[in-house]
């Protein structure tokens, strides 16, 4: 059975996987100066057995039963909303997308749960492009209640140049403390209330100061 994660700095819960299972992230972790070279989800409290076990269970369950992902997560997210009335949900406070099928299921969840705002940070550029290319072919758009946010690979890196199919995809980057943010990006200092839940805002780019 899938398990949700508690996210103490954020308004609602999240669903996560082990950082060690990231595809792009595992490659970037070996690159000096990349955002994954100092991954927060590979240290500190994320390494506690009780915390890591939740992510390992989620990963194993998905690999064994990928076809059940949509229905099981829909039940979990709906139940949590009915208990708390918190309308914010984050994907991957640890880990990342496993497949394009997973991303398509997450988009379907956003469509079918329009009263919840979803945020999905990811480094899986090719998976995102594959899904948005297909949406363009079908003349469909992403639902407005999901912020799919591609993370720039390198600290202080510049934003990606997107193809037309990715026009609704957002971006984020990690900046060092001495770097001046761009005028048109929001800087997140880790307090969701003070920046009005900007990570879930499907209209703006975000910079996260390195820590």
List descriptors.
211 residues; alpha/beta; seven-stranded parallel sheet; 15% strand
Structure description:
The protein is of the alpha/beta class and 211 residues long. The protein has one domain (14-171). Helices cover 30% and strands 15% of the residues. It contains five helices and seven strands. It has helices at 23-28, 49-64, 69-84, 100-112, 125-137, and strands at residues 14-15, 88-91, 117-122, 146-151, 170-175, 185-187, 205-209. The chain has a seven-stranded parallel beta sheet, with no helix packed on it. α5 (125-137) links the parallel β3 (117-122) and β4. α3 (69-84) packs parallel to α4. 31% of the residues are buried. The model has no long low-confidence stretch (mean pLDDT 90).
Short description:
The chain has 211 residues and is an alpha/beta fold. The protein has 5 helices and 7 strands; from the N terminus they run E-H-H-H-E-H-E-H-E-E-E-E.
Which helices and strands, and how do they pair?
Elements: E1 14-15, H1 23-28, H2 49-64, H3 69-84, E2 88-91, H4 100-112, E3 117-122, H5 125-137, E4 146-151, E5 170-175, E6 185-187, E7 205-209
Parallel strand pairs: 1-2, 2-3, 3-4, 4-5, 5-7, 6-7
Helix pairs in contact: 3-4
